[in-house]
Amino acid sequence: MTLFIEQLINGLQLGTMLFLMASGLTLVFGVMGLINLAHGSFYMVGAYATALVTAATGSFFVGLAAGIAVAAAVGALVELIVIRRLYHRPHLDQVLATFALILIFSEGTRWIFGSSPLWLNPPAMLSGSVTLPGGLRYPIYRLVIIAVGVAVAVGMYFLITRTRLGMRIRAGESDREMIGALGINIARLYTLVFAMGAALAGLAGALVGALQSVQVGMGEPVLILAFVVIVIGGIGSIKGALYGAILVGVVDTLGRVFLPGFFRQFMSPSEAAGVGSAIAAMLIYIMMAAILAFKPKGLFAANE
Amino acid sequence: MNKSNTSTLAPQPGLPTPAASWYDRKGLVQIGLLAFLLLAPLALYFLGHIYYVNLASRITLIAMAAVGLNLAIGYGGMVSFGHAAYFGLGGYVAGISAYHAFDFTPVIGWPIAIPGSDSMLVIWLAAILLCGLLALVIGAISLRTTGVYFIMITLAFAQMMYYFANSWPTYGGEDGLPIFLRNGLPWVDTNDALTFFLICFGGLVLSLAITSRIMKSRFGAALTMARLNDTRLATAGVSPYPIRLVAFVISAMITGLAGALYADLNGFVSPSMLSWHMSGELMVIVILGGVGRLYGPLAGALLFVMMETLLGGMTEYWQLFLGLVLLFVVLFAKHGVMGWLAGRERHE
Amino acid sequence: MKKLASVGLGLLMTTAMAAVQAEEVKIGMITTLSGGGSHLGVDVRDGFMLAIERSGRDDVKVLIQDDANRPDLARSLSNEFMQRDNVDILTGIIWSNLAMAVVPAAVRQGTFYLSPNAGPSDLAGRMCHENYFNVAYQNDNLHGGMGAYMREQGFERPILMAPNYPAGTDALAGFKHLYEGEVVDELYTQMGQTDYAAEIAQIRASDADSLFFFLPGGMGISFMKQWENSGVDLPVFGAAFSFDETIIQAVGSAAIGAMNTSLWAYDLDNEANHAFVEGFREAYDRMPTLYAAQGYDTANLIISALEKAHPSDQDAFREALREADFDSVRGKFRFGPNQHPIQDILVREVVEGDNGQPTNRLVGIAVEDIQDIYYEQCQM
């Protein structure tokens, strides 16, 4: 039973991390109608900046702040130079231009920092584990990631429902022409929203980088998962991103753990691992196809 | 179809055009491209540079896979981000069949025993049929969605195949499956680099001819109309959904056949043939060459592999420059290499 | 690296234009220089090149390419080396899955392959070949050694973990072969996995008394970092692949106390090893790993055979390789009938070094003259 709960928390942690990625993606699509494959690159940029600044200053928190700032700045720059030329283009052009950005970011990073991973450790005060009610010991740092994800979700809720910026974002989502008519500087709003998405991706990259490793291409598997999340949740919907992220995180984690165990009842461990992990790896895609087959616009379709 | 009416719309590949003469600019460029691809390896073969003949085979097969994708994206307006699924499935058909032929074990033991085969003809047929079947299932579900959702769901299906191949241990999983002996054809020696190149070249010419035939037929006109204005097609009493689905299936069959040959060329098939990077690269080739241009994939594949070989020889980071070129093409040179070489399509 | 690459490119140009000089020996090295496991390839390359430089032979040309840990890329690089550059010898591959993609086809086309790292069971057994020599180990060796050691130390309920790929399944099979007892469970992870929360939870929930794992390269670092913070308190055992100097430096204090088996240790007392360790530190300003030692031995074996025959005289060169007439940094080294090594397996412990950084210290010998269990399947 504790094993199940621990895996549930693991799934929740993956889910909150996916939410950080997916919320930016879905905002950018909802407001600007842009499909951005290069979102994973901001995840990588945030992780690299955090690792480098942490190594230079010795403080993880300074590094983290730098990571978020650098990701936001890079995001704003990319929006100004490339992305804004794509808003009125077909999706095919957006996919290809942002695919090109992935190549540029990944190979550029490899060129500058080399192919070896960088190592980033969580700060000493967040390492180690605590005993949760029920006797389960769980790493503090993973709990912190969940807390950050929850804080971001709450913050986004207030930002969108209670602030002037949020009002504009909502206006942009429901009617793109109208916000221009309201005398809002659309160009600036778009840059701001895009940079905000990049900052969240950078935050996710930095947090996960300390848990795993910081290397070129680290954003791509996460990017694909984040796309699954926003498609399941309904593209453009923050609420959908939240539910989708938790659903994908939990289903993926539980599938990976319990499917091989299930097949082990009638196979050898090595075979069970093979078959079980094959099906576990496909599980979220099967879920996505099933959801789209019944709800072609996702669970919480925003506009359109 | 009233030409003066449609000519005000955006680029319209596939609309009937006055028969292209071989001696106008476009015809000359097309013949030049094919002739270059055929003659350069011939010359290099007799000079003893086997490596470059194999490189030409690679260009030919990637071009062929992109011809398939071009039918979906360029002519059908279906932005499939998952054509690696068919490319890889074709490859795995070749790999798995050869694996069982090598081991003398059946591919399927029950309910009927299907033995492995190392004959290319059998493998090609199986690859085409299976890819068609897979595309029928994927297309039937995916074509219910449009826009970004279509892009994402095709990607999701391809990822499903990728992870399945990655984790299924019987055929090597992540490690891939080596083909120890190249599959054979009656009467010819497929191990000879030139012979194999000519087989690939034949495949490419055939797929170009099929695409050209389709787009000149009534079906092609309906497909074009489904892309440009499907309401109008529906008012004419033709449902766009089956038209698109058939085009999607044919597109997958061409890409799948290219994949089967590609596995034989490399003597190896691995999940990377199914990865989303592969899907992306095929799209890049279509775009580089020019979307919806019959010979665009050929020009794109030539450019892509040449960049990979020349830039890759100079710097490990050649994909950085590929990225820059691609960005430039998408932002500023929408008509690709063919648009630049052969001029725009007449009715633009 | 840059320089080597440009030398390689220049060479390629000259071969394309002029006829190849008969006396020159060309070695193609396909190894992993980018991605998570890149330090393995870098060390093999550096150890190999150190020995080539020391030999002073300028008729040996080494062409180096990065396989990025991708089997398909390794396969096409090997075709390039054989068809375009006409290399005499291939070497360098780190990972068993890449070796399986490249080696069987290469040796059947008449090229020699000397493995400086991977040793999958198929190549030692049913698919062995007279042109294939393994200078490192058969994949089971180090794991089997640890199995024997843990049995001897009285552990009764080990839990095992390895990635789900040929070397991973070989590793656990090798461990169980010499451990000869029941194990609590076997966990298989994805290749290249970065998050081990799920596995750690399973280990925590089991009643194991010890953990044996095989996670080479970056996977081992990620796992050990997460293991340290998990609060699970079991003694940790592994093969040297998870505890080379680069990995334990990155892991830090979490690695201290871990026992691991190796075929080489930098404090192994023999003359060839002293010369190697000193030379390597001088040339590259870091401690060598066992990968560097294997690369160094591979190059020295090639040089020793070249003293006797040119690879174009295949039979004579093969015979010269079989004699293994070189000073191995392992002290003693000989080939079994399947051209895989017969060697001692050492036990090392990770301890705090003089500078406070963790380092490996030689503890003793786990198994003497270990030989793989597949040689009987090999028909040469």
From TrEMBL, chain A:
GO biological process, one term: amino acid transport
Protein name: Branched-chain amino acid ABC transporter permease
GO cellular component terms given for this protein: plasma membrane
Subcellular location per the Swiss-Prot or TrEMBL entry: Cell inner membrane
Primary localization class, coarse: membrane
Superkingdom classification of source: Bacteria
Alphabetized GO MF terms: transmembrane transporter activity
Family per similarity comment: Belongs to the binding-protein-dependent transport system permease family. LivHM subfamily.
Pfam families registered for this protein in UniProt: BPD_transp_2 (PF02653)
Xref: InterPro entries: ABC_transp_permease, BCAA_transport_permease
Lineage: Bacteria, Pseudomonadati, Pseudomonadota, Gammaproteobacteria, Oceanospirillales
Keyword annotations from UniProtKB, A to Z: Amino-acid transport, Cell membrane, Membrane, Transmembrane, Transmembrane helix, Transport
Record carries keyword ATP-binding: no
Residues annotated as transmembrane: 12-38, 58-83, 95-120, 140-160, 189-211, 223-251, 272-294
Membrane-topology annotation of the record: Multi-pass membrane protein
Automatic annotation (TrEMBL), chain B:
GO annotation, cellular component aspect: plasma membrane
Subcellular location: Cell inner membrane
Keywords, ordered alphabetically: Cell membrane, Membrane, Transmembrane, Transmembrane helix
Membrane association type: Multi-pass membrane protein
Residues annotated as signal peptide: none
InterPro entries: ABC_transp_permease, LivM-like
GO molecular function: branched-chain amino acid transmembrane transporter activity
Primary location recorded for the protein, binned into one broad class: membrane
Cross-referenced Pfam families: BPD_transp_2
CDD domains membership: TM_PBP1_LivM_like (cd06581)
Transmembrane segment boundaries: 31-53, 59-77, 84-102, 122-141, 148-165, 193-210, 241-262, 282-305, 317-342
Recorded superkingdom: Bacteria
Name assigned to this protein: Branched-chain amino acid ABC transporter permease
Organism: Billgrantia kenyensis
Taxonomic path: Bacteria, Pseudomonadati, Pseudomonadota, Gammaproteobacteria, Oceanospirillales
Automatic annotation (TrEMBL), chain C:
InterPro entries (UniProt xref): BCAA_transport, Leu-bd, Peripla_BP_I
A Pfam family of this chain: Peripla_BP_6
N-terminal signal peptide: 1-18
Domain Leucine-binding protein positions: 24-353
Source superkingdom: Bacteria
UniProt keyword terms in alphabetical order: Signal
Entries under PANTHER family matching the protein: LEUCINE-SPECIFIC-BINDING PROTEIN, PERIPLASMIC BINDING PROTEIN OF ABC TRANSPORTER FOR NATURAL AMINO ACIDS
Family statement drawn from the similarity comment of this UniProt entry: Belongs to the leucine-binding protein family.
Name recorded for this polypeptide: ABC transporter substrate-binding protein
Organism: Billgrantia kenyensis
